[in-house]
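Lab notes, practical 5.
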Amino acid sequence: VMVVAAGGALGAVLRYINAKAFTHYFGSPLPWATLIVNVVGCFLMGVAYVWLLDKYQASDNLRLFIMMGFLGALTTWSTFSMETVLMMT
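Output from the prediction step:
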């Protein structure tokens, strides 16, 4: 549980920093930062799956930290859903 929590904390912080930086530099009201993070994160999830299971044969803790914790928190459907609803109101 702690491994997933640690990875999730890092992923959530990176998501927050990315959203703030994107809004600061581009000022777009559209949730481009969330869309980009989700697409890149999902791609990285596929790469990590192959790399950690087939190539590296990583420990369960490392896989949980990277895939479920870090990338899971980085790519959340809930943030995209919330931003979409906010745009419709």
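Observations recorded by the TA: The longest helix spans residues 2-26. The chain has a mean pLDDT of 90.
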